[in-house]
């Protein structure tokens, strides 16, 4: 292989500016974390609500939640990114549309978070639904029998156990959201993948660049995994088989 | 206290309850027995509205259960229920299980609820287990906690849905003892069970169900003396012979 290795490249200055390539990657890493973590908060909130509604006895609510899930999980993430960025603003009232296109602060970031958050919420919702449905029906009855309303029964009885049960699949979803956030480069978010492409073109040291980026993504997912394992351990219910170990 | 008038219920085409009527007056202990699939569990769940029914009406302490205007959570908070599989909340300690209904439904202070809960826990002989979790207790212990949890709400009557069916034989008596004590104190109780010894000891009346019908509704003496229906005689001969 006729490749000129240069591991010192990260400390060199970029062609047109004062900063180093390492600065670019660090900035990108920061945006990746910002997009992924903000979208995760949104995915957990929306997914928790939508997944709960999917198990609700009210047909209308359950139907709405099913539509939500089908809509956001049946379209490729990259296409959704473009839809939110290019199509949705055109469908809004003129004034709002203009404001979004010209004046909205951090437009790319907000769009990416919205898109990734909603996409992931559909997946989280399915896991929440599975968790709720895995509990014996007697738990719901016991909650109601004590005098709880149905929302109280969910709040105090069903969801605390359902969320504990789904920690393992939620873990992989949390890891996915870091990896999926790379799609945000397509609409111009200056996240890690975007910065990597820029560095590759600017420095012509593509192999070093992408190896470094690989390590950074790996660390993200790895820390996410260990963090969730810690939460799983902390929320373990004594004497309850499904969550012990 | 509890009036059940001509109640019928269907699951789709299948009729699970047919024209069931009975009454339970204050302080009465009524045992409901019958073969599995006869509708006894369904009937008792209709009493506090956990199961809906399509015909007839049920009145608990003057409130109609089937009326859409009825505040069911409020009604249920006054009717204690004990389930076959205990249904303690596994993620809460025993104390929290006893406290949560009192604070969230009845609006009691945490201190008051804890005091009341621990008193009842002591009464069912489990004060030392207060800080454990349901999964760390035996079945019999869990069911006694479940009874204490229901009592903590100061119920006007208690419903028991096969409270000993999921227990190992040597744990059945510890639960029945608590129930006998409760009956002797004058609690109004509707008990779905196959424990005929319990029925003999404390029941005022015995209801026998088969195929969704109330076949027999008699005093304890009549029921164990000369049950009138052939089906009830068969049933008794099978479960009393050993």
Textual characterization of the structure:
The complex is a heterodimer of chains A (245) and B (242). Chain A has helices spanning 21-54, 59-73, 77-91, 94-102, 107-134, 137-145, 150-165, 167-180, 192-203, 206-234. With 245 residues, chain A is mostly helical. The longest helix of chain A is centred in the first third of the chain and has 34 residues, at 21-54. Chain A is globular, with a radius of gyration of 22 Å. Chain A starts with 20 loop residues before the first helix and ends in an 11-residue tail after the last helix. The model of chain A has no long low-confidence stretch (mean pLDDT 93). With 242 residues, chain B is α/β, with parallel strands linked by helices. The longest helix of chain B has 16 residues, at 169-184. The relative contact order of chain B is 0.17. Chain B is 38% helix and 25% strand. In chain B, the strands form two sheets. In chain B, strands 6-7-8-3-9-10 form a six-stranded mixed beta sheet, sandwiched between helices. The A-B interface holds A 136, 138-139, 141-149, 152, 156-157, 160-161, 164, 237-241 and B 45, 48, 50, 72-74, 76-79, 81, 83-85, 87-91, 100-101, 104-106, 132-137, 149-150, 153.
Average the pLDDT over all residues of chain A and give the rounded result: 93
**Sheet with most strands of chain A:** none
Global geometry of chain B: globular
Radius of gyration of chain A, in Å, reads: 22 Å
Helix content of chain A: over 70%
Contiguous helical run count of chain B: 9
In helices, the fraction of residues of chain B equals 25-40%
Assembly state of the chains shown:
heterodimer
Q: Overall 3D geometry of chain A?
A: globular
Please give the radius of gyration of chain B in angstroms: 18 Å
CATH class label of the domain at 32-191 in chain A: Mainly Alpha
**Poorly predicted ranges of chain B:** none
Count of helical stretches of chain A = 10
Mind sketching the topology for me?
The complex is a heterodimer of chains A (245) and B (242).
Chain A: H1 21-54, H2 59-73, H3 77-91, H4 94-102, H5 107-134, H6 137-145, H7 150-165, H8 167-180, H9 192-203, H10 206-234
Helix pairs in contact in A: 1-2, 1-5, 1-8, 1-9, 2-5, 3-5, 5-7, 5-8, 6-7, 8-10, 9-10
Chain B: E1 2-11, E2 14-24, E3 29-33, H1 40-47, E4 55-60, E5 63-64, H2 72-77, E6 79-82, H3 94-104, H4 110-123, H5 139-151, E7 157-161, H6 169-184, E8 189-192, H7 196-202, E9 205-210, E10 213-219, H8 220-225, H9 230-240
Parallel strand pairs in B: 3-8, 3-9, 6-7, 7-8
Antiparallel strand pairs in B: 1-2, 1-4, 4-5, 9-10
Helix pairs in contact in B: 3-4, 3-5, 4-5, 5-6
